[in-house]
UniProtKB/TrEMBL annotation:
This is J domain-containing protein. It comes from Davidia involucrata. Residues 77-131 form the J domain. The lineage of its organism: Eukaryota, Viridiplantae, Streptophyta, Embryophyta, Tracheophyta. It comes from the Eukaryota. The keyword Hydrolase does not apply. One of its GO terms (molecular function) is ATPase activator activity. Keywords: Membrane, Mitochondrion, Mitochondrion inner membrane, Transmembrane, Transmembrane helix.
Length: 137
């Protein structure tokens, strides 16, 4: 089984059987050293990758609520954002969304009169009852 491409194996096959066992034990520390070096490099790379991960800039996260100011004339898009629905949502779902948002922002429960009027205006715009800018404020 000697191969011209493997000079170490060729030299070991020439030796007597007693000497072959001696050379096989000499390779074990070499392999152990290579394994330790590979583990050290992998650990170093892992630490560098972790530090780069921690130092990355924060990414934009999904926000649950609309964070913009109000436009002078409310559009269907703005009304949908206020109520948390799509512009093509059926009327019964719009009314449910209006009720849910209004409970959270009703003036009797400590909410703002301005926000309550904007929520009502958003419902009217989506349902097509007014053209917008019907806010009392």
């Amino acid at each position: 089984m000697s191969s011209p491409f493997c000079p170490i194996f060729l030299s070991l096959s020439i030796l007597s059987s007693d000497r072959r066992e001696e050379f096989s034990f000499m390779g074990t520390p070499l392999l152990a050293g290579l394994a330790v070096a590979a583990a050290a490099y992998a650990g170093r790379y892992g630490i560098q990758a972790w530090q780069a991960f921690k130092a990355r800039p924060p990414t934009a996260r999904m926000r649950k609520f609309y964070e913009g100011g109000f436009q002078p004339t409310m559009t269907k898009r703005e009304a949908a954002l206020i109520l948390g629905v799509r512009e093509s949502t059926p009327p019964d779902k719009v009314k449910e969304a209006h009720r849910r948002v209004m409970v959270a922002n009703h003036p009797d429960a400590g909410g703002s009169h301005y926000l309550a009027s904007k929520i009502n205006e958003a419902k009217d715009v989506i349902l097509g009852k007014s053209k917008g800018s019907g806010s009392a404020f």
